[in-house]
Write a structure and sequence with these properties.
Layout (H helix, E strand, L loop, with lengths): L1 H12 L19 E3 L5 E10 L4 E17 L9 E7 L24 E14 L5 E13 L2 E2 L10 E2 L3 E13 L3 E2 L5 E10 L4 H9 L5 E8 L12 E7 L23 E17 L9
Antiparallel strand pairs: 1-3, 1-14, 2-3, 2-14, 3-4, 4-5, 5-6, 6-9, 7-8, 9-11, 10-11, 11-14, 12-13
């Protein structure tokens, strides 16, 4: 009788189905997250001097809007992936494709377009928990020649056919370990620096592009509520714009414009500093992304 009780207890302690070597189920694969364009930005920083070259400073050439997808696999960082697009904030979405084709008919005739993309090829976790992300940094620049004929029938400049320039260089971003943000989002910050020697086209394109302010968390309302007193929408948010250069010294003379060489943009380095908020992609009723 004692032997029967011992065998019964032993059988109850074993996994069902004879799975003596059963392992815990692997974690589900990480899902891609969407970059929140209203709460993400890329700060473009280069080197400059002030006080007639005596003092070195960092100069923010502008802020870019960012969209794309990011997959961060905490269990296996090698499976993580970053696909990002950076572009001027005069459009909600990139006005051109990576190959230079126009995506926005209302902006197709602009004299120039700048698009900066990053596509990761390798992700590793560093000893301090940060992610080292190596991949292709892609610059797409579209330019048009300006034709001006000052005749009596002049109605403004016309632009020639688009000329597409696409250059790819390898770059490495270092991202902080993601933390939880508002509304179940995740936030992270990362940066990379490239030299003019290795990527002169990128430095030139950034410094020659007009970067409108990025309005982070922009919300617009109609204070008139659709009445006859309508005066347009009021928009609020955090304005991110070029820092500008220090003011040059002035003279006692009212018409003195200031020293023209007091400040100088050097442009030997270009740093891309990314602030990303990542939102989980919604899943439909069929379970598809």
């Amino acid at each position: 009788m004692l032997r029967l009780v011992v065998l019964t207890a032993l059988a109850a302690s074993l996994p069902m189905g004879g799975g003596y070597n059963a392992l815990p189920a692997p974690p589900p694969p990480a899902r891609p997250a969407q970059v929140d364009i209203l709460h993400s930005n890329a700060q473009l920083i280069t080197d400059a001097t002030t006080d007639f070259g005596k003092t070195k400073i960092n100069y923010t050439a502008g802020y870019a809007r960012v969209n794309g997808e990011v997959t961060i696999d905490a269990a296996n960082p090698a499976n993580s992936k970053f696909d990002l697009h950076m572009y001027p904030a005069n459009a909600k979405e990139p006005p051109i494709e990576e190959q230079g084709k126009s995506r926005n008919k209302w902006m197709a005739d602009m004299p120039s377009h700048t698009l900066i993309c990053f596509h990761s090829t390798q992700v590793t976790r560093m000893p301090d928990g940060k992610l080292q992300v190596t991949g292709d940094l892609v610059l797409t620049r579209v330019d048009r020649n300006v034709n001006v004929e000052p005749t009596e029938a002049y109605s403004g400049p016309t632009y020639g056919a688009p000329m597409v320039h696409r250059v790819v260089r390898q770059a490495t971003f270092v991202f902080d370990a993601p933390t939880w943000g508002p509304r179940d989002s995740r936030v992270t910050m990362g940066s990379t620096s490239v030299s003019r020697e290795n990527f002169p086209q990128l430095v030139k394109a950034v410094l020659s592009t007009h970067w409108p302010p990025v309005i982070e968390g922009e919300t617009c309302t109609n204070p008139a509520g659709g009445t006859e007193d309508y005066r347009g929408f009021e928009c609020k948010g955090v304005y991110l714009r070029s820092s500008g250069l220090p003011p040059a010294p002035t003279s006692a003379a009212e018409d003195y414009p200031g020293a023209s060489d007091f400040n100088r943009i050097v442009g030997n380095q270009m740093t891309i500093l990314l602030h990303l908020r990542l939102n989980r992609r919604r899943v439909n009723e069929a379970g598809e992304m």
